[in-house]
Amino acid sequence: MEGSLTARDRVGIQDFVLLDAYTSESAVLDNLRKRFNENLIYVSLSPTQSRGITYAAHLYPSAVLLNLYIALPFSYALADNVYRTMLTETNNHFILISGESGAGKTEASKKILQFYAVSCPSTKLLDNVRDRLLLSNPVLEAFGNAKTLKNDNSSRFGKYMDIQFDHMGGAVGGHILSYLLEKSRVVHQNHGERSFHIFYQLVEGGEEDLLRWLGLERNCQRYSYLVQGECAKVSSVNDKSDWKTVRKALSVIEFSESNIESLFAIIASVLHLGNVTFVADSQGYATLNNSPEIHWLSKLLGIPAQVIQVGLTHRKIEARSEEVLSPFTVDQAVYAKDALAKAIYGRTFTWLVNELNESLANKDSSRKTVIGLLDIYGFEVFSVNSFEQFCINYCNEKLQQLFIQLTLKSEQEEYEMEGIEWESVPYFNNKIICDLVEEKFKGIISVLDEECLRPGEATDMTFLEKLEEKMGGHAHFIKHKLADQKTRKTLERGDFRLLHYAGEVTYSVVGFLDKNNDLLYRNIKEVSSKNAIVKHCFPSTEPDSKKRPETVATQFKSSLVGLTEILMSKEPWYVRCMKPNEGKQPGLFDDVLVRHQVKYLGLMEHLRVRRAGFAYRRRYEIFLQRYKPLCPDTWPNWKGTAAEGVECLVKHLGYKPDEYKMGRTKIFIRHPRTLFATEDAFEVCKHELATRIQAKYKGYRVKGDYMRQRQAATKIETCWRGMKARREREKRAWAVKVIKRFIKGFMTRNQPACVDNTDYLAFVRQNYLTRLKENLPKTVVDKNTWLTPPPIMQEASQMLRKLYTRHMVRRYVQGIMTERKAQLQIKGLTSSIFKGTKENYPHSVGIPFVDTRISKGDLVLQCDYLFEALTKLCLVANKHNFIKVVQGSVKFDIQPGREGFVDFKSGQETMIYRAKNGHLMVVSMKLKTVWPFNSQNEQIHFLNYY
Ligand SMILES: Nc1ncnc2c1ncn2[C@@H]1O[C@H](COP(=O)(O)OP(=O)(O)OP(=O)(O)O)[C@@H](O)[C@H]1O
Ligand SMILES: [Mg+2]
């Protein structure tokens, strides 16, 4: 709500209670105009209270946008509010909808009802109730609404409807109370007005068969009760389609076919009755002029024609013990006829409401909560105001009294609850006017009843005189005779004026007595009818009762007392409807009209009552929450209780002690200006605050992002580290395992292969092989280089060594040139011949053989060394095993049978000579290096060399 305070200069103030000049009608009007111009559809007169009273003035600025586009949001919001409060507090509520004719009361109430129909929980059973509740409206409107000069669908009765809800909030039933149906409309309408819709609907929309059965023609002009206003047809009303709606509604509400027939028979009979005319006979008494109507009346009402005829032209008088029929004059007969029409219609309407209630009744006796909708006429002030306006305005006085009681009561209760002293405030208590009207033996109604009931010639004027007598000095009663000169000019002789709380209304007494009496002659009431409804409405026991029936005013008074009791037990909510102009013009704000409504809706008085005491109150938490930026101590956060916070805040704002009061849970501010000053300060502060909040928010967002990123980084880091640590741990565990296995393997290395040493041995093998690979002998002759193998590799090592040696040999051999090969082969041959047989052979191995030159014809060997020479000899002879090493000397066969010997020895100088034994002696010098064949004992045998 506070949010709307700031734009108050332009759009006005939503809560009228906060108007500074709340006593000024112009200020109220001004505010309404602003709200109207801004298309702000409703004006709340105090939604500030947590519960209790919410007012609204419906203003429909645009007639083009008519049909509820505008007023709806408020109606729905209010309906919703009431519904929720009812559910949470499980108590009963009522919504009082008031306003002058055509202001939108009925529309608002229908929309509220529709809201409940749509928003309440739905089940098959509840939907049935919902349909009946909704459809009760068109039926009631058909029988109780009519076109008037102010409204084409004017409700001609007051309506209070209870909607009953179960504990789940489902609409389970309803009950309707009707007040003061304007029966006189049946027999008389002002120019431009119509009778109740149902007559036109029946004539225009009724099926041919039905009309035939009812003896009606499809022409409204044929019925004198329908043509007095000379506007049987209205462009805004579609009687035909409305008829269909009503027919459908009646069947949904489960009216029996026979009841529906009886109902239409009554409607038709009223039309026939209207066409009955009388002529004066020779004595001046009334006689019936036409019989067809009587025939139809008799048929439709189920009363013998004779009885009707007599009833319409005679009155039954009791003279001593006898009953005598006294004939009517024509005027009296017309009066009796109209009275009968009104009575039939009026009672049928009551029957209809009862039937609807039957249909809406919830048979379940479990506890229910109730929301009542009171669609009731507001103050009526016409140029001529009669008995009806008197009753209606009296009703409004009663409602005002109820309002005062409920408002002050709830205010007082709230003050008490909050521990705030109640200060009595000046407001106008209209009890004085209510008493003026209703007080027993003294009030206007009493005087009127007295006048109606007293024997003798009582007239409206005698009634006025009585009033004068009794009310003479009353401050709220003015009469021509008693008025001052100036006032007297504004009053007719037959007028009296009441100073209602909302304003003055002048009433003309003409017809008061008649209307109050609502006289129906006994012989008409006595008839016994075959029409079920008539039978029910005019029970045969009634005429026997000698007691006079209650007058209309007294009945109305009692029904209002009943209504007040009903309402007093409920929580009130108010909807005040206003119309901006009479012509339904879009955007037109008729100052005079609105001012008139403001006055007669009693808004000024309402404001005064509502402003009794403090204009504004708010729970501490809410107040502190909104205004805490205005004080450095409370902003941004207040650490103590909300009440302390508010105390600190208002001190900082400089509230004067008499400007506010601290309740138990709420702060009360006396003048709106104090609140507005606070609100203005808040408005200024808001922008700065917005920037700060924005900055903070941005910072917060960025910080949030940063924190999220940091968190993410930490998370990733943690995961990564965790993963690394886990890997490390796994590695270590693995290493420990490996080392353990290694040690165990080492310890068991010499045992036969088993699980424990398999790996170790494999490692040893691999390790040995790897190292071996790096340390292989480089040459074939390198016999020393070979890694000592671990015990398990002994055998393999040997095999490898062999393999490798062979490999090297092979490589060596493959790399040897042909010449060298030949040379080596010779060497090989030498080895095969001499190895192991000659002691000095190994010393010759390293000495290469030089090439041999062989001269033609003879073998000429020129060798430095014997081994070489011998080998070559073998080669030449191609006889490798011809050489035999023997000890001492070499024997050879020169010719068969002749053999020679060569002896070898070493000496000082080299010489060859024939020794004494005939052997060839070879002396060779003793060389440092040991030569082959240099031993004296060595002999070489050349066997068959050539
Ligand atoms: N809020 C609204 N906005 C626009 N038009 C509306 C609004 N409320 C009612 N009307 C129009 O005004 C007409 C009269 O409304 P409604 O019948 O509700 O008045 P009322 O206050 O019940 O009058 P009465 O006292 O005569 O029964 C409606 O038929 C509708 O056309
Ligand atoms: Mg209405």
TrEMBL record:
Localization, UniProt: Cytoplasm, Cell cortex
Region (Actin-binding): 560-582
Keyword terms of this UniProt record: Actin-binding, ATP-binding, Motor protein, Myosin, Nucleotide-binding
The keyword Nucleotide-binding belongs to this UniProt entry's keyword annotation: yes
Annotated positions binding ATP: G99, E100, S101, G102, A103, G104, K105, T106
Ranges of residues in domain Myosin motor: 12-683
Keyword ATP-binding appears in the UniProt entry: yes
Molecular functions per Gene Ontology: actin filament binding; ATP binding; microfilament motor activity
Biological processes per GO annotation: actin filament organization; actin filament-based movement; endocytosis
Organism superkingdom: Eukaryota
GO cellular-component term (any): microvillus
One Pfam family linked to the record: Myosin_head
PROSITE patterns (UniProt xref): IQ, MYOSIN_MOTOR
InterPro entries on file: Kinesin_motor_dom_sf, Myosin_head_motor_dom-like, MYSc_Myo1, P-loop_NTPase
Membership in a protein family: Belongs to the TRAFAC class myosin-kinesin ATPase superfamily. Myosin family.
Identification of the protein by name: Myosin motor domain-containing protein
Organism: Oncorhynchus tshawytscha (Chinook salmon)
Gene name linked to the record: myo1hb
